[in-house]
Amino acid sequence: MASFNGLGMHMGNLAILSTAESRSISAENPTGEKGKGAMATPDPAKSPARKLGRGWKAAPYVVIEPGEVKVLAEIAGAGAIAQIWMTPTGAWRSSILRIYWDGSPEPSVECPVGDFFACGWNKYAQVSSLAVCVNPGSAFNCYWEMPFRKRCLITMSNTADSAMILFYQINYVLTEVPTDAAYFHAQFRRVHPLPYKEVYTIVDGITGRGQYVGTYMAWGVHNSGWWGEGEIKFFMDGDAEFPTICGTGTEDYFCGSYNFDVGKENGGYREFTTPYAGLPQVIRPDGLYASQQRFGMYRWHIADPIRFKRDLRVTIQALGWLGDPRKGAEFLPLQDDIASVAYWYQTLPAAKFPPLPSPDYLRIV
Q1: Residues 13, 15, 20, 21: what is their CA dihedral angle, to the nearest 10 degrees?
Q2: What does residue 266 show for φ and ψ, rounded to 5 degrees?
Q3: Which fold has domain 1-181?
Q4: Residue 262: pLDDT band with limits 50, 70, 90
Q5: Which of 20, 89, 100, 365 is least buried, going by the fewest C-beta atoms within 10 A?
């Protein structure tokens, strides 16, 4: 990915000096100000640091009450988010992450926290990629570059009925941002179940100039048999009925092949996680109440961003088999539980996102 003035460091430029100023926001320094970390006074009755005093891990997390919208970061000036780490408690679909750029009233990122970090089924799965890492036991890490010119606002909403605890750290730089740097966006969608013969829309209504950089999907299968024959399609810059880019199958788009299946004798579906693509999560039926197969997949277009000049729409088909594909079977449109996150950069202003589904609709059961 592009870097500027000290952001996006890699092994080839770590020795290059920069005028960028490093800052970090956490519960121990909620404003990110220079020299303002670890200033909290321990609670004399409850804090484990009550005998140690200030500076001894007195405020390492925040509590977000039911219905509360908690401001995690509010940064004035120009700069860029470099890394986000957090480990939220509770149901991840009930915790909504939102990010606003340069004073916009509408979020450019609006997503349940687990799905944003490529872990959509409220269960841990190891993710080892360039853009997102999920590490034991529930450590979410994001490395997407997120430049801003005037202001950055990051919030977390708790839509659950109980309080959540959030440890978090947001690392960023204060620096000049070049005129050709675009703004990061991420949009969540879910359809459950997908209506028969309806194509699933990952994202539509994108207007402006930019590049599409990633897809995460949490796919719950309702039928027996293989479920991933559907093609992903990118309609850009005025495409109508037919897209400019059309893939050859779901597992192909996520950089796998032949059903992600290594054969029954080798364990069937095989999880994998790589820098650019992965199937890090396969949730298998247990023979009792966990009756459906569920999959988590990501594909980052870091080496091959999909450029658009005016507009973009991305869809994928839910397609299985009616009968044996080795004996002349037909495709079967599926009615699955599908959720997705689309990631892209674009100019502002951006089109308003569709309303996020209700907490009941988002719930994973």
Answers
A1: 130
A2: -110, 15
A3: Jelly Rolls (2.60.120)
A4: very high
A5: 365
